[in-house]
Amino acid sequence: MKIVILGLSITSSWGNGHATTYRSLLRALAARGHDITFLERNAPWYAENRDLPSPEYCRTRLYEDLDHLETEFTGEIRSADLVIVGSYVPEGIEAGDLVLRQATGVTAFYDIDTPVTLARIDRGVDYLAARQIPAYDLYLSFTGGPTLDLLHERYGARNPRPLYCSVDADQYRPDPAAGPGKYDLGYLGTYSDDRQPVLDKLMLQAALRWPEGRFTVVGPQYPPTLLWPKNVHRMQHLPPDRHRRFYTRLRYTLNVTRRDMVHAGYSPSVRLFEAAACGTPIISDQWRGLALFFTPETEILLSGSPKQTLRYLRQIPEADRRQIGQRARMRVLQAHTSEHRAAELESYVLDVRGQPPGPPFTSAVLERTAS
């Protein structure tokens, strides 16, 4: 297929989790033979922090405003077999209207922030209007479960389908050369008001209770007024090409979920799959649907208190710790790589077209990524 995507940003991962999702998915789509153009608004924040200005697996085109988008790229939109508009695209409602007017192929809205979107759409968000939901051929959602029924029954989505985040298993894998974990527990994530109380409870209070423990928090936008325990190392930003090194040098990593995602359930984070692919055991907060992705206590550990976090960190034997990480890695390789998501997207598009599905994601690919 010829695919055109209007997304928040693929060129910069600075404070932008969308970039990781787009990069892994587009790389897998290109490997399956698709021709991809990514259209990105030339926003100052991302322009100043571009860590991948020209991905090798797609053509990246920057546009300055809506007039520039319409003048320069309407031809691309008209000729595409599939046009995807992503959540949080600047002036996304107007960009979506342009796509819905001009596209001749399948149109899709890719909501990487579904619970946030649905919590706010009745009050108004600037990247999607409720009237547009039934107009798209596909509504691709980062959230599954009952949210898909809500999209169909309340908002009229014709074909709501889950397209969860995933991981590029070629880039995220265990490091045989990694020695003993440099940190007992690490967290990678941008600051948010709703996640911070959970991070405080599950990690920072644990750090205060265990001064000998080693902890690290990596991510931008944390308020300078925050007070960190002395045994918590802070880093402002870590580009994606250093995430694997980060995870493989942790004994455990912490997963903390946004409030809207907890409420909706069935909303795995890309950090879950990245850490698991590296074989790093995960301690997570709890949310509905988590067991669909990892089996609690055997593939992932659930914590609701600093005491529980410390019990995992200090009492699980080393051999058991490693087995938890390895079991989670195998689960990801079986169902949650970017190759799986690319094949799922193809099947959704072919279903809308009324065509039979193409070649499946085969065991040969799984064996390659596992190795």
Q: What sort of overall outline do the alpha carbons produce when their principal axes are compared?
A: globular
> What average pLDDT do the residues reach?
92
Side by side, the strands of the main sheet go: 3-2-1-4-5-6-7
Order of helices and strands: EHEHEHEHEHEHEEHEEHEHHEEHHHH
Poorly predicted residue ranges? 359-371
**CATH architecture term of the largest domain:** 3-Layer(aba) Sandwich
* Strand segment count: 13
Please outline the major beta sheet.
Answer: 7 strands, parallel
CATH class of the largest domain: Alpha Beta
Total number of helices? 14
CATH superfamily of the largest domain: Glycogen Phosphorylase B
Number of domains: 2
The Rg value, from CA coordinates, equals 21 Å
What's this, in brief?
By secondary structure, this protein is of the alpha/beta class. Helix content is 39%, strand content 16%. The longest helix has 18 residues, at 318-335.
Describe the structure.
- With 371 residues, the protein is an alpha/beta fold.
- The protein folds into 2 domains: 2-166 and 337-363, Glycogen Phosphorylase B (Rossmann fold, 3-Layer(aba) Sandwich); 183-335, Glycogen Phosphorylase B (Rossmann fold).
- It has 14 helices and 13 strands.
- The protein has helices spanning 17-31, 44-47, 66-79, 92-102, 114-120, 146-153, 196-209, 243-248, 259-264, 270-277, 306-315, 318-335, 338-353, 363-370, and strands at 2-7, 35-41, 59-63, 82-86, 106-111, 138-141, 160-162, 183-188, 215-218, 232-235, 250-255, 282-284, 301-302.
- The strands form 2 sheets. The chain has a 7-stranded parallel beta sheet, sandwiched between helices. Strands 10-9-8-11-12-13 form a 6-stranded parallel beta sheet, with helices on both faces.
- Helix 3 packs parallel to helix 4 (92-102), helix 7 crosses helix 11 (306-315) and helix 10 crosses helix 12 (318-335).
